[in-house]
Write a structure and sequence with these properties.
The protein contains 7 helices and no strands. The protein is mainly alpha-helical.
């Protein structure tokens, strides 16, 4: 498998987890406490991956200043975009309950939710392509972490979409498009940055990490805490440990 095809393939795999999670959330009446628990686990998984895979790689090749600058830029860009989307109805896009507005409640919210879901998935997928540039092969720990976190994202969000009255055609159309976009974003992460210096690749990896951490705190943790409350932290720690173990075994 060539590196180019590898980046496309693993981007599709990680994005495909959103579709699998969406199918479970839409057709199976999963208790909200279970959804929240899975979301907490996914949050811990991603935090570990961006800490021990992305940020460590960025620091090794770009140094502290570039890594810190990229990390803050990624956080600011995501926060600004997420704020704009929240105003037009995408604030609760990962919530599994009745928090998501219907199109009747807020016109244009369906498109905002779709764009928000795409915003959440793109930095993760670019990170997969960049991991191939860093090590010559895909980071198994990074792909596994993104896959494990995408499952509860798709599950929770599609459950909320169903409760807000959105059709199966809309829900699966959204997630299929995003899965395809994840594959293409991973490909872009590899091909576009292939001609850039390791310094630029490292700094860009930090940008992706900053966006991912902001996404976790802004959209995943609220859903995780909403139902699990005092258990959210413990479940997140378990997710962190699983991802950390995968990272160490892969290394």
């Amino acid at each position: 498998m060539t590196p180019t095809f590898e980046s496309l393939f693993w981007g599709f795999v990680s994005g495909g987890a959103l579709v699998v999670g969406a199918a479970i959330g839409y057709f199976v009446n999963v208790p909200s406490c279970i959804v929240a628990g899975i979301m907490a686990f996914g949050s811990g998984v991603l935090i570990s991956a961006l800490s021990f895979e992305l940020m460590e790689e960025a620091f090794e090749v770009a140094g502290l200043t570039a890594t810190a600058t990229g990390f803050l830029c990624g956080a600011f860009i995501y926060a600004a975009a997420n704020r704009a989307l929240a105003i037009v109805g995408a604030k609760h896009r990962k919530r599994s309950g009745s928090q998501q507005p219907s199109e009747e409640d807020q016109g244009g919210s369906g498109l905002a939710i779709a764009v928000g879901a795409l915003l959440d998935g793109v930095p993760e997928s670019i990170a997969i392509g960049l991991s191939i540039l860093h090590g010559g092969a895909v980071s198994v720990a990074t792909v596994a972490a993104i896959f494990l976190s995408n499952l509860p994202e798709g599950l929770s969000s599609s459950a909320g979409m169903r409760r807000s009255g959105r059709s199966a055609t809309y829900v699966f159309g959204v997630w299929l498009v995003i899965a395809i976009a994840c594959g293409l974003s991973s490909l872009v992460g590899y091909t576009v940055f292939d001609s850039f210096s390791p310094f630029v690749v490292g700094a860009t990896t930090a940008v992706a990490a900053g966006a991912m951490l902001t996404m976790i705190v802004d959209t995943m943790i609220p859903e995780a805490f909403a139902e699990t409350h005092n258990w959210a932290g413990l479940i997140a720690v378990l997710g962190f440990l699983v991802s950390f173990t995968l990272s160490q075994l892969a290394g």
